[in-house]
Amino acid sequence: MGATGGLTKVGPMRTDSSPGTLPAREHLPAAAAGTPVLDVVIPVYNEEKDLQPCVLRLHEHLKRTFPYAFRITVADNASTDTTPLVAARLAAEIPEVRSFRLEQKGRGRALRTVWSASDAPILAYMDVDLSTDLNALLPLVAPLISGHSDLAIGSRLARSSRVVRGAKREFISRTYNLILRGSLQARFTDAQCGFKAIRRDVAQILLPLIEDTGWFFDTEMLVLAERAGLRIHEVPVDWVDDPDSTVHIVRTATDDLKGVLRVGRALATGSLPLDRLARPFGDDPRDRDIKDVPKGLARQLVGFCVVGGMSTLFYLVLYSAFRGFAGSQIANALALLVSAVANTAANRRLTFGVRGRGGAVRHQAQGLVVFGIGLALTSGSLAALNAATSDPGHSTELAVLIAANLAATVLRFLLFRAWVFPDQNDEPTSSSIVVASHTPTSPVHQAYAAGPYANASYGNGNAYGNANANGSYGNADASYGNADASYGNSPYRTDQFRAGDVADRTWGDQTTRLQPVRPHDSQDPRNPR
Q: Alpha-carbon distance 138 to 132, whole Å?
């Protein structure tokens, strides 16, 4: 396969994902030519002492334990010491190492730039101090390779994690995560652990939505992913605090709190297009047809009853409040209108599992029609009560309204199920699925394509398994510390580019689409069974 990637016909293709949304979450193919499966990014700033030991240790660990082809990318954040020289020398001596130079600082900027330019289907990063035990790396990326999860994070706050650090940092970390849970309703346990991974198809859509370029980048990425309904896998880690860490705690905490306010405001106003991260209908197992079982009926009934019960209580509270200054008919109409909007939104998400904002306005409009029918039913019951008695008591009104609402609830469920949120069909068409295709258009991709991975076949492990097997890089001359600071004249090659090039998408389409065949779609010819 050449630099433009390869196409393999293996069976029918799913066509249920629309442009701008994620494809169905699938297991990556067991073999693909030319491209590493994992790209581990190490963002660094003035790390001339720690960089080489970190890269050598990580490289040795991956060669010994990781069953797929990999790449290690050093992302230099405008270092002013000899860090670029160290990175360039490592890249020249170790085939699986690449070095990028950015002229602007910011960990988030470095990750966004390198991740956006990478052609590996699984993207990860870790801090240069290697505080996290590397034995957690394979458990971190395995759920992404298998298609089980979209993102994966290491957690120092999980019950089975084993952490060695001071009381000050422990207090700050736990306090920050409590703030996230209280303000942004975050459910992940550790936002700041420098040990994360993401599927590239998710990163291509998620990264443009992230504004922060510093330390808050991780938190913003996780909050947006969680709100979009993506699956985040957490791995308990063994973690030892780095006493020489250069992180400025007060400034970082201040920036993080500002980021929490900004993201919270964006979520509250609905200004983030999280529907771009929606998976296609059918990716959720709850969307699938099961023989002899009505599709989702039991789950929908339970969800509808719970939402209906809460809506009825909400309606009665509103009616009692409005009845204090308005007549029964006006109070009923206002209470029913407010509760109907809330009821439609809750049933849309919780009962019928509609994800994203697509069609939300239409659903609310149809919900208002259902509301009109319920209004006619409840108003008619009140009119009948007033005709039967000239001055009915408040408790009598409530009893009549409860009975009328129960009847309206049954009708509402039937209309919701058959008209507002009907079952969506998921019928595949007979065409060919693209297992892996990639058309690199950037200088970085061309550099990768021309490198040792161009003809590699990581399925047998020979392409990288024997690279530098004698460990010659371990004895490399360490005299680079006295090198001329003008590393631009170094004989080693380091790719340089403006951080905004990738974020602005000026390199065109770089998406690697990976859609392996589902077991029930066709027989994979690579499987002898």
A: 13
Q: How far apart are CA 449 and CA 98, in angstroms?
A: 13
CA distance 99 to 97: 7
Helix axis angle, 249-269 to 217-227, nearest 10°: 30
Rounded to a whole number of angstroms, the distance between the first and last alpha carbons of the chain is: 27
pLDDT tens, residue by residue, 413-426: 888 888 888 865 44
Q: For 14, how many CA atoms within 13 A lie in the half-sphere containing its CB?
A: 26
Cβ atoms 355, 279 nearer than 8 A: yes
- Residue 185: left (phi > 0), alpha (psi -120 to 50), or beta? left
Residue pair 76/83 in contact by the 8 Å Cβ criterion: yes
Distance (Å, rounded) from C-alpha 54 to C-alpha 242?
13
**Going along 210-277, which residue ranges are E strands?**
232-236, 238-240
- 8 A C-beta contact, residue 102 and residue 113: yes
Q: How far is it, in rounded angstroms, from Cα 371 to Cα 343?
A: 10
Helix axes 394-415, 297-322, angle to 10 degrees: 150
What averages of pLDDT result for each successive group of 10 residues across the chain (529 residues)?
35 37 74 78 92 95 93 93 94 94 90 93 93 94 93 92 87 88 88 92 92 91 90 93 69 85 86 76 59 64 84 88 87 85 86 73 86 82 84 83 82 85 52 34 38 38 38 40 43 45 41 36 38
Dist CA 26 CA 98 (whole Å): 28
Q: How far apart are CA 259 and CA 174, in angstroms?
A: 17
What Å distances lie between residue 10 and 25, 367, 381, 446, CA to CA?
18, 44, 62, 28
What token pair was written down for 120? 């590996």
CB 220 within 8 A of CB 259: yes
Q: Where are the beta strands (DSSP E) in 227-331?
A: 232-236, 238-240
Residue with token string 């992302």: 75
Q: Under a CB-based contact definition with an 8 Å cutoff, are residues 222 and 150 in contact?
A: no
**What is the C-alpha separation between 77 and 246, in angstroms, rounded?**
14
Query: How many Cα atoms are found within 13 Å in the side-chain-facing hemisphere of 127?
Result: 20
**Among the listed residues 299, 319, 340, 512, the one whose alpha carbon sits nearest the alpha carbon of residue 423:** 299
C-alpha 102/C-alpha 496 separation (Å) is: 6
Q: How many CB atoms lie within 10 A of CB 285?
A: 7
Q: Where do runs of H (alpha helix) occur along 420-520?
A: 443-449, 462-465, 499-503
DSSP code string of 312-327: HHHHHHHHHHHTTTS-
β-pairing, 151-155 vs 195-199, is: antiparallel
Measured between alpha carbons, how far is 314 from 377 in angstroms, rounded to an integer?
18
Query: Where do we find the tokens 């009847």?
Result: 407
